[in-house]
User: Which sequence fits this backbone?
């Protein structure tokens, strides 16, 4: 299989890829957590698109952490043969509160 770099325009679906993201949670109980994430490989959907699954922990802050399990939205083409996914989920409730995490992950090869 040929190597694909960030500079290559890639038409269609790339079967073995994932996405990373660096974001912050919503402010709850006077603090935020950083959320560093890498998704699963793509999960094909019935409409010939794909989504990604992710789970993990937000960074320890204010004496605690939170866990999350979530699926991304469908692929969004962003040009240059790349795509991203939107995510919007809540962490587990710990220390009497939970946080919302939402944003867009880093681009990956493939325009679908």
Assistant:
């Amino acid at each position: 299989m040929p190597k694909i770099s960030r500079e290559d325009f890639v038409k269609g679906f790339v079967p073995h890829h994932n996405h990373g993201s660096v974001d912050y949670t919503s402010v709850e109980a006077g603090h935020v957590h950083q959320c560093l994430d890498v998704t699963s490989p793509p999960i094909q959907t019935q409409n010939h698109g794909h989504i990604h699954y992710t789970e993990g922990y937000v960074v320890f802050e204010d004496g605690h952490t939170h866990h999350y399990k979530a699926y991304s939205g469908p692929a969004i083409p962003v040009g240059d043969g790349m795509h991203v996914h939107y995510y919007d989920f809540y962490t587990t409730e710990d220390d009497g509160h939970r946080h919302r995490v939402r944003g867009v992950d880093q681009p990956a090869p493939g325009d679908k």
Remarks:
- The chain has a mean pLDDT of 92.
- The first strand starts at residue 20 and ends at 24.
- The beta strands are 20-24, 34-38, 43-44, 50-51, 53-57, 67-71, 75-79, 82-90, 100-104, 108-109.
